Hints:
Layout: H1 5-14, H2 24-35, H3 38-47, H4 50-61, E1 65-67, H5 68-75, H6 83-89, H7 98-104, E2 109-115, E3 118-124, H8 127-130, H9 160-174, H10 187-194, H11 202-214, E4 218-220, E5 232-234, H12 236-243, H13 247-259, E6 273-275, H14 285-299, H15 315-325, E7 341-343, H16 356-369
Antiparallel strand pairs: 1-3, 2-3, 4-5, 6-7
Helix pairs in contact: 1-2, 4-7, 15-16
Amino acid sequence: MDADLVRLRVIARFWDVELQTSRQRDAAAQLAEAMAAPEAVADAWNALPDDQRQALEPLLAAGGRMPLRVFAREWGEIRTMGPGRAEREQPWQEPASPAEGLWYRGFISRAFDQEPEGTYEVVFVPPELQAHLPIPSTPPPAITIESAPAPAGVRLAGDGLLDDACTLLAYLQNEQLRPGTDGNWPTRHEARLAHRLRDPDPTRLAFLRHLVQRLGWLRHAAAQRGTDSGRLRPDPGPVAAWLQSPTGQQRSVLAEAWRDDPTWNDLFHVPTLHPEDTGAWRNDPLLARKAILRYLTTIHREPVERRAPDTWYKLDDFVNAVKQTHPDFQRPDGDYTTWYIRDATTSAYLSGFESWDRVEGALIHYLVTAPLAW
C-alpha cells in the first residue's frame, strides 16, 4: 500500500487494525494483509457512509478503475496534503467529498496509466478489496431519447456528394490545374469548380477534395515536353473502378474513407470553434468519430415495436443524452483544461467541463449536420 504513515494510521483505525510498527513499509504490509480478509471487507463496506458507498458503486461497475478527473467530477476532489498538514487539519474527520472519504478509509488509491493519448492519473479500488466487494449489476449507460414530432420541412438524403465527386474528377481531367507549393489550389479554379457543384459550400468542397486525395484518386502528371508538368489529374485505375461500381458501393467507399481517416480532424472544421495546434495537445479524431457513430447506431437498435419506421429525434436531445451517458467520448482521461480551443466569434478560450456544450456539443452537431448529412 503506497501511503504515508499518517494515512496508514487513519485507515487502520477505520478497519479496526492495531498497527504493530512505526515503519511505513511494515505498517503498510500489515494493514494490506488485514484488509484482504473477506469478513473485514464486508464490515468496512457496511460501515461506509451512504454517499461514499454510492461513489464506490459506479467505480466498481467500471471495473474498479477510472480516470481521476472523471471520478472527481462526479464525486469531488481529494485534496493534496503532506503528512504534516494532514496531521494538523485531520481531513478525514470531515471529508471535503465522498472521494476524499473513500481515500482516508483505504477504499481507493491513485496511480498513473499510460495510454496512446498520454499519461493520466487514475483512481482505483485495490484488487484485494475489489475481490470481496459486491459488483453492482448496473447496465452500461445507454443513449435513451424520446422521439419527436416530424419537422415542418424535410430535406431528403440524396447522392449530391457522389455527383459532386464526379464533377470534381471531370474538372481535373479537363482543366490545367496545378496546385501551389503548399498544395492549395489557385483561387480561380476553386471558384470555377464551386459554380459547377450541386453544393458550393467551401467547407464541403474542402472535405470532398480531402476524400478523393485520401482515396489515392489523384496524381501529379509527370513532365511531358513541359506541357503537363505538375498538373493534378485523376488516376485512371481507381477512379474508373469507382465510377463503374454500383451506387450503393460508391456511397460506401466515400463514407468508409471518412470513417477510417485519422488525417481529417473533424474538431478543426467545426465552424464555431478555433482550435490552436500548439503541439502541446492533440485529439484523436477517430476516437470521437467512431464513438458518435456507435451511439447513433444504438438509437436504431430499439425493438421495432417501440418505434415507427419514420421515427424522428431532436439533435439537441441526442447531444444531451451523450453528455449524460458518455461525456468523455473524445477525452477519455477527463482532461478539459489542456486543449487550446477558442470560440471562433469571441476568441475566448473554452476550457473546463463547463465548456462541454460549446466544444463536444458543437462537434456532435458538426458530425451529424456536415459529414453525415453530406
